Amino acid sequence: MNPTTSKRRIRIFDTTLRDGEQAPGGSLTPEEKIRIARQLVKLGVDVIEPGFPISSPGDFAAVQAISRELQGVEICGFARAVKGDIDAAVRATADAPLRRLHLFLSSSDIHIDFQLRKSRQQVVELARSMVAYAKQFVDRIEYSPMDATRTGEEFLFEIVEAVIAEGATIINIPDTVGYALPEEYGRLFRRVRENVRGGDTVEYSAHCHNDLGLAVANSLAAVQAGVTYVEVTVNGVGERAGNTSLEELAMAIETRKETLGVETGIRPEEIYAASKLVSRTMHMPIAFNKPVVGRNAFQHEAGIHQDGLLKNRSTYEIMDPERLGIPRSMIILGKHSGRHALRHRVGQYGVTLADDELERLYARFKETADAQKTVSDDELIRLIGETTARVIDRFAVRDIQVVSSSDRARVASIVITDHETGEEQVYSATGAGPIEALTACIKQAIPLEVEFEDMELHSLSSGEQAAGEAEVTVRVGEALYKSSALDQDVLMATAKAFLSACNQALRAHAPVRVPSTSAASAG
């Protein structure tokens, strides 16, 4: 890189496995932590905080295993300003090729008075003595005055100066309760550096919570104030409203790096895989409108936007989803969609429409879209067949039956029509749950090796008459295929979506040859 155009490197400190796991319901087993840690290394993070070693035998084992296995990444042992915590963190990270200890102790009056029940001087002396104790074992010591953004500046300066004097090498100024505004947070780093003896000899780290939705903005303010590290979690998971979102911060820097003058080592192509892994493992769905990785982040329904995107992606997208490892499905068909988008989607199914056919399909499409929130892939394929007397998908679900029981395997049977042969076939299978049993039935009909990759179920309205939307992703080899279906019966919606995704895979491998007369009778 040309030295005159080089950018300052921001190090990404990932605390998904420690602070992120503190999200209610987000507990992880040691095996799950190791699996996520491996993905974090692929993602390109610089530091991993794998857990809180003193908190449980499982956390200690996870931190120890990750420290032993992962190379090329710094491992951080987390500890309160307590000797027992420090000892556990030292032992757990002993085999890490590169490590630091991260000590924390409250500094705001509200924490000191009501949680610690100590005087300010006692807090300073405790911080000083514990940093000195930790320094015997590890050279790289990070210190966090917890609730720093609600701590008076003078006392913050005093405690930071004390720990630097004892050997702290990294000062983290955490916005523990998400209270700060960006200009306040950035200024705080500058003030500490300017007013603390030794403040210009250490590195700085930012740790923000998202209670007011400002975690990423505050972290960027800290970046502009000169921090070296930003502490993040995948999908922004964490206490209460969560932490700074790794993917949002990384892509904000990547997208605006010329303006910010900084860069990270994050590999964008691994972002989506990391996001999905954390979401599934923690059982925490990603909000539809979540920036970067949410379902709607690169999807567009408005006709004007769809028209612009089909002409040039950059008209309404500032990032390339495929570069992030996200399958491209930018056009969502709904009542706001126009003819251009409809023709484009139909073309993706290998169908070319005459102008009069497009008008008939568009009229039926609008009627359907007005009656429901979106038009699913399964529904659109049905409309094409009814309008043009053609069959797009080789296989179609005709009927399903599922027998459930609380103490035995679920039994499913499904009737599938093969439009290529004109025959109907019944398939049966069992599974631990009804969806497993249904998909096992469908796999018997598909002449490909299909893996069930992912599924989302959503209610599209309230009440007992609500329709369910199933969005299913399947894997064939290295390729992913995603489709959706609607039905008041969520099992039928799942079966239709799964089969529709399988049909997509079949079209990708070979065209479906179905006489138009068969199509007319099948419709």
TrEMBL record:
Short name of any one Pfam family annotated for the protein: HCS_D2
E.C. designation(s): 2.3.3.13
Keyword Metal-binding: yes
Pyruvate carboxyltransferase domain ranges (all copies): 10-272
Pathway(s) annotated for this protein in UniProt: Amino-acid biosynthesis; L-leucine biosynthesis; L-leucine from 3-methyl-2-oxobutanoate: step 1/4
EC top class named in words: transferase
Gene3D superfamilies hit by this protein: 1.10.238.260, 3.30.160.270, Aldolase class I (3.20.20.70)
Alphabetical list of PROSITE patterns matching this protein: AIPM_HOMOCIT_SYNTH_1, PYR_CT
Keywords: Amino-acid biosynthesis, Branched-chain amino acid biosynthesis, Leucine biosynthesis, Manganese, Metal-binding, Transferase
Domain of life: Bacteria
Family (UniProt): Belongs to the alpha-IPM synthase/homocitrate synthase family. LeuA type 1 subfamily.
Protein name in the entry: 2-isopropylmalate synthase
Annotated source species: Gordoniibacillus kamchatkensis
